[in-house]
Amino acid sequence: MVSTLIGKQAVVVGAGMSGLTAAGALAHRFDHVVVLERDTLPTEPTYRAGTPQARHVHALLLSGQRALSELFPGFEQKLARAGAVPLRAGLEAVYYGKRIRVATWARYRLM
Ligand SMILES: Cc1cc2nc3c(=O)[nH]c(=O)nc-3n(C[C@H](O)[C@H](O)[C@H](O)COP(=O)(O)OP(=O)(O)OC[C@H]3O[C@@H](n4cnc5c(N)ncnc54)[C@H](O)[C@@H]3O)c2cc1C
Fold first, then answer.
1. Is residue 3 part of a domain?
2. Which residue range(s) make up the domain with 18?
3. How many structural domains is the chain composed of?
4. How much is the pTM?
5. More confident residue, 97 or 34
6. Strands (E), 1-111
7. Å from CA of 50 to ligand 1 middle
């Protein structure tokens, strides 16, 4: 059988969404993938200096969710356990400038 490996080691700089997704993709093609991150990564979902944008509400659209689930089996379940809220964009969330309002029945679904 022909090996699908490209090389022994790949190095990714940054453990944000891009870096970790790249590392996940490279893991299928390299023996080792090293991710260099300047922050100490927290074990719980929380803010850190290297990703200041994380203080804003972030939404993951369906195509991104599907792609990440393909790359990382169990991704959706892990997101849910970490506190992610499933919403139908435009139906259950309304943006008012910097604020986001979640429809009452969507909030109820979270309880
Ligand atoms: C207000 C706001 C709202 C947003 N809302 C959404 C949204 O709803 N949905 C969405 O998909 N996107 C959203 N985005 C965009 C999204 O946040 C970014 O596209 C995404 O976080 C970029 O990820 P990244 O991994 O490329 O970079 P980053 O998240 O910036 O990660 C870079 C990583 O590299 C590390 N790093 C940097 N320099 C070094 C170094 N020299 N050595 C080692 N490590 C280093 C940092 O510590 C960090 O961990 C939003 C952005 C903003 C600002």
1. yes
2. 1-42
3. 1
4. 0.86
5. 34
6. 7-13, 30-36, 93-96, 99-102
7. 8
